[in-house]
Specification:
The protein is mainly α and about 250 residues long. It has five helices and three strands, in the order βββααααα. A three-stranded antiparallel beta sheet has the order 2-1-3, with no helix packed on it. A hairpin with a 4-residue loop joins strand 1 and strand 2 (about 30-35). The chain starts with about 20 loop residues before the first strand and ends with a helix. Mean pLDDT is about 75; it is low at about 165-180 and about 210-235.
């Protein structure tokens, strides 16, 4: 490659491209041809800037790479390479920043979802505790009904009544309230049993009366005014009166 045309002696302006002289670069970054070195006072003084204590470097291929880079005929190529490197690094950094921003948004959404799930878990836990308290109340009602010797029908009615009214106990409720509810439901079951028995007794009485009327239909009817009402009362009628009397006592 031909040497640059702009290299010349800073004292006599002789061109380096003629290649008939040696050129030197001083430590103060001036260029002198061999003929002009006689003006340096034996290499002690720069004839251009009058600087003392000079050092000379011959301009040739064997010179230091750092000094030789000053004479690069294409100095913009390193700049272009540097600019490409800078653009590449900026793109990579921008890509990483966008990913970090996206990750931050995803983390924020994940935190919100976690809070919602925690709230749902707390709600489901409350519902579970409520169902567990209801199960305990029903089991307690079953045990009490079994210990009280209730019939299966009464126990079923008791469970139905308690199942419709049972609620999870709060902190302010006491054990007496649950006991009162149990005895109230027990009373209702006993009343329902008594009413059922009275209906059965009444039906038995009607059957007895119908059979007696059939048997006495051939006989002439007569009224005995001398007999007392209690002497003519059938056993079934007395049983019904006893049942009604017991129901009245229980209601009072």
């Amino acid at each position: 490659m031909a040497p640059p045309q702009w290299i010349h002696c800073n004292h006599c302006y002789y061109l380096f491209s003629k290649k008939d002289r040696k050129f030197y670069q001083t430590s103060c970054l001036h260029v002198l041809c061999r003929n002009c070195t006689v003006y340096t006072n034996r290499g002690q003084l720069c004839p251009i800037c009058q600087r003392q204590g000079l050092k000379f470097h011959e301009i040739a291929n064997e010179m230091d790479p750092k000094e030789k880079a000053l004479y690069n005929p294409e100095p913009f190529k390193p700049i272009e390479a540097a600019s490409k490197s800078i653009i590449f690094q900026m793109k990579q950094k921008k890509h990483l920043i966008l990913q970090l921003e996206t990750t931050g948004e995803k983390l924020h959404k994940a935190d919100q979802m976690e809070q919602q799930m925690r709230a749902k878990i707390v709600d489901y836990q409350r519902k579970f505790d409520k169902c567990r308290e209801q199960r305990k109340s029903l089991q307690e009602a079953i045990r009490q009904s079994q210990s009280a010797g209730l019939s299966p029908e009464s126990a079923e009615l008791l469970l139905q009544s308690r199942g419709s009214r049972v609620r999870p106990p709060t902190q302010g409720q006491s054990n007496s309230s649950s006991g009162e509810e149990f005895f109230d439901s027990d009373r209702q079951s006993r009343r329902s049993r008594g009413s059922q028995r009275s209906r059965d007794s009444f039906l038995d009485m009607r059957k007895d009366s119908s059979t007696s009327s059939d048997s006495s239909s051939s006989r002439p009817r007569s009224v005995d005014f001398g007999s007392t009402p209690s002497s003519n009362v059938s056993p079934s009628a007395s049983r019904i009166s006893d049942q009604l009397h017991r129901m009245q006592i229980k209601r009072t």
